[in-house]
Amino acid sequence: MTDRELCAAGIGDPALRAAYRHCRALNARHGRTYFLATRLLPVDRRPAVHALYGFARWADDIVDSLGTGADTGRRAAALTELRRSLGHGLRHGHSGEPVVLALADTAHRYGIEHALFHDFMSAMSADLTVTDYATYADLRGYMHGSAAVIGLQMLPVLGTVVPREEAAPYAAALGVAFQLSNFLRDVGEDLDRGRVYLPADLLAGHGVDRELLRWSRDTGRPEPRITAALREFEALTRGVYREALPGLGMLDPVSRPCIRTAFVLYGGILDAVAGDGYPVLHRRAVVPHRRRVAVAADGLVRAVGARLRAGRPFRRPAAPRPMPTPELGGSCPPAAAEVV
């Protein structure tokens, strides 16, 4: 986290600054698309987005990457401890866990509903025991906690030009669209973790089951029935992007370039998968670097223009409220919080 971002957000407490920096590092390391888009936000809002992503990344890492060969019991215990730390942090505003400390501060500053974080933790716990989903409706139930709530958490930080409850369904749909894109890209990697996120009834409609996916993964051989199922899942995902699209215009104008850039880049995952012939069981499709640079450059132009026009009326995020804890030798000069 740069000092400019922290000071613009009015974050002076050394422990909080360290916690936010930790979250930013997680974002930069694990979420290249998300991190790139976040750079297009006004500086004072970036720390909050890093805190939200950092917490989500930390929990997801516990589920997927907790040491080599960590069994389900160890992962469940780690998630239980994180849930306990989360509850304490949200109630009292402090925690020894950096990602929880930053998250609790962000939740308080922007008035984010605590239930959204608890729903997310429930979805993470489900990943320890649920290995597939019978129907798309079942998958959407899971994604309420794993993806839709992320969009809802972001909304108070981004701000809206309409009442927040009007924009909420679109923000939730966008979170789902992003995760569906990742599910399509990561079919092979998820299969290696024992999970299949493509609905079983969609697969069965093309004569595909887990065993056929495993065969293709192990042999490296394509299978037309699998390709057909993946193509249908791609079409389903594009439908969710269309569902979410009207929400972009409901955001605070200075936040739109960030979310539009993420919208285009995550949608580009679908283009990369389809353009490569749906080889997701054998290798990960990536958005070409030139495309990422072009989209980011367009986003930057839009961001600058939006900030120049920021005098026009819109519904700003609620004024961030400092946590009710003493500041311990803040690192910002008195006027630094006004930097934009």
TrEMBL record:
High-level lineage: Bacteria, Bacillati, Actinomycetota, Actinomycetes, Kitasatosporales
Region feature (Disordered): 313-340
Organism superkingdom: Bacteria
Protein name: Phytoene synthase
Record's keyword terms, sorted: Transferase
Source organism per UniProt: Streptomyces canarius
Pathway(s) it belongs to: Carotenoid biosynthesis; phytoene biosynthesis
